[in-house]
Design a protein that fits this description.
- Strands 2-6-7-5-4-3 form a 6-stranded mixed sheet, covered by helices on one side. The protein has a 3-stranded antiparallel sheet with strand order 8-10-11. Strands 1-13 form a two-stranded antiparallel sheet.
- The chain folds into 2 domains: 87 residues, Phosphorylase Kinase, domain 1 (2-Layer Sandwich), CATH 3.30.200; 217 residues, Orthogonal Bundle (Transferase(Phosphotransferase), domain 1).
- It is globular and about 60 Å long.
- It starts with a helix and ends in an 11-residue tail after the last helix.
- 34% of the residues lie in helices and 17% in strands.
- The chain is built from 14 helices and 13 strands.
- By secondary structure, it is of the alpha+beta class.
- Strand 6 and strand 7 form a beta hairpin.
- The longest helix has 20 residues.
Length: 369
């Protein structure tokens, strides 16, 4: 493929900012149906940098146990001494104040939405100036990855929880917000009561059409190709790639489905499955200039796109049908403009059993905020 090598040479780094967009080129005309949301909102809705946040005191909260940790926080189960109710404390590590304001305002603006973890309080640890987000407690609970790997989910369960994730994302997108770190570990489920919450909105952002965003977001195995090639003009469709990765895990019992050792290898794993041609068309369409090293690494060998049926085997064939593969194909598109939207995915025949079951089953009522 000599022409592939000659088109995309650009000196420089190839990790987080793997490529750059030629802004002199004509931008693709596609716009996401929710592109306008924040254009119609007052700045007080999305301008988190100037938001005023009032922090309470942490005195009412008694720590019970540590239940998790992440790059930016540690998470504890706690008890509110004032009402004896359990809650979750997300203790934030030192981080820029505007990032804290962003997460707080996003949770406030999404409060009452389907399957969005509810923010109860915002406090400051006494004498430490450490901000803490207090959210609702889900117990007993597992994250989606744990449920996936234990074999406790039926085929209907898989459909139901994915449908509920899409319902939450469609709500967030309709409110001008994308999560940017969708993964099984950020989906908490009380399987006994079929209660699900999407948590950790710390990387979520307000979508402003035409704004360039940081590509250093997300978790490697669920990063969309747009992040890995350095395309900063991405949109809500980033979340849909991550949902596609989760569906692939469930269908084919590969945890994770795309397993890269670093960002470059992650992109290579995507090329191995999606094919060289799809990725080449993508970087050509958006005028992305990849580094020489990344270009040689990815395109020295041509890869043909693998059919999804090639991942079906005796271990997973009972989970896979034509509807599942068709939905997966519409989620895992290299070009983010070609991915199915959340509300479209909810109407896909793959979810027919869920929609039928829901007709006579009242939905969970979410508190008004």
């Amino acid at each position: 493929m000599p022409e592939a090598k000659s088109c995309f040479f650009a000196e420089g780094r190839y990790a987080e900012d793997a490529g750059r967009v030629d802004k002199s080129a004509k931008e693709p005309t596609f716009t996401h149906p929710y592109w306008y949301v924040n254009n119609k909102m007052p700045p007080s809705y999305w301008d988190y940098e100037n938001a005023e946040v009032e922090f309470g005191t942490d005195e009412p909260y008694e720590l019970i146990q540590k239940i998790g940790r992440g790059k930016y926080s540690e998470v504890f189960r706690a008890r509110n001494r004032l009402n004896d109710e359990l809650c979750v404390l997300k203790v934030l590590k030192p981080v820029r104040l505007k990032k804290i304001r962003r997460e707080i305002t996003i949770l406030q603006n999404l409060c009452g939405g389907p399957n969005v973890v509810r923010l109860l309080d915002v406090v400051m640890v006494k004498d430490e100036s450490t901000p803490v987000l207090v959210t609702e407690n889900i117990e007993p609970a597992d994250n989606f990855r744990t449920l996936m790997s234990t074999g406790r989910l039926s085929a209907f369960d898989m459909r139901y929880y994915l449908y509920e994730i899409l319902r939450s994302l469609d709500y967030a997108h309709s409110r001008g917000i994308f999560h940017r770190d969708i993964k099984p570990q950020n989906v908490i489920i009380d399987h006994q009561r079929r209660k699900i919450r999407i948590v950790d909105w710390g990387l979520a952002e307000y979508y402003i059409h035409g704004q360039a965003y940081n590509v250093g977001v997300g978790t490697r195995h669920f990063k969309g190709p747009e992040l890995l090639v350095g395309l900063r003009l991405y949109d809500y469709s980033l979340d849909m790639w991550s949902v596609g990765c989760m569906l692939a895990e469930l269908l084919f019992h590969q945890f994770p489905f795309f397993r890269g050792d670093d960002n470059v290898d992650q992109l290579q794993q995507i090329v191995n499955v999606m094919g060289t041609d799809d990725v080449l068309r993508y970087v050509q369409k958006y005028k992305i200039q990849l580094s020489r090293q990344l270009t040689e690494h990815l395109f020295s060998t041509a890869h043909v796109k693998r059919p999804w049926t090639s991942f079906v085997n005796n271990r997973n064939m009972s989970w896979v049908d034509q509807n599942a593969l068709e939905l997966l194909d519409r989620l895992l598109r290299v070009d983010h403009q070609e991915r199915i939207l959340a509300h479209e995915a909810m109407q896909h025949p793959f979810f027919d059993p869920v929609r039928r079951a829901m007709k006579g089953d009242p939905q969970e009522q979410y508190p008004k905020c």
